[in-house]
Design brief:
Length: 109
């Protein structure tokens, strides 16, 4: 009876270790995913370059959005003082979090 009790303890310990490892792996996998929901900003173009758009939002916030590596068909033709809607996602580049444009819609020129 004593050896059966030790066997059960060993079985519980193995189960606990495997379950802990499984939970750790699942946690690592889910934390590595970068599936941020797209954000939408509406505002007036304050500054525009080949790689950035700076907006003044309707709330008065200044938002700098990167347009590097974007499809020029979806992000292009924006001029100063245009009223736009910008859809973007957060990305980490060189250890910094930036907003990356996915699409820019010109509402009013």
């Amino acid at each position: 009876m004593h050896s059966n009790n030790n066997h059960e303890k060993l079985l519980y310990m193995k189960t606990f270790i495997y379950l802990s490892m499984f939970i750790s792996v699942i946690g690592c996998i889910s934390s590595c995913k970068q599936e941020d929901q797209p954000q939408v900003f509406n505002g007036i173009v304050y500054d525009v370059t080949m790689s950035n758009i700076t907006l003044i939002t309707s709330k008065g916030d200044t938002v700098n959005i990167s347009t590097m590596d974007d499809n020029t068909n979806k992000v292009g033709g924006v001029l100063l003082d245009d009223s736009v809607e910008v859809t973007c996602v957060k990305e980490e580049i060189e250890g910094r979090e930036i907003l990356q444009a996915i699409e820019v819609t010109i509402i009013k020129k």
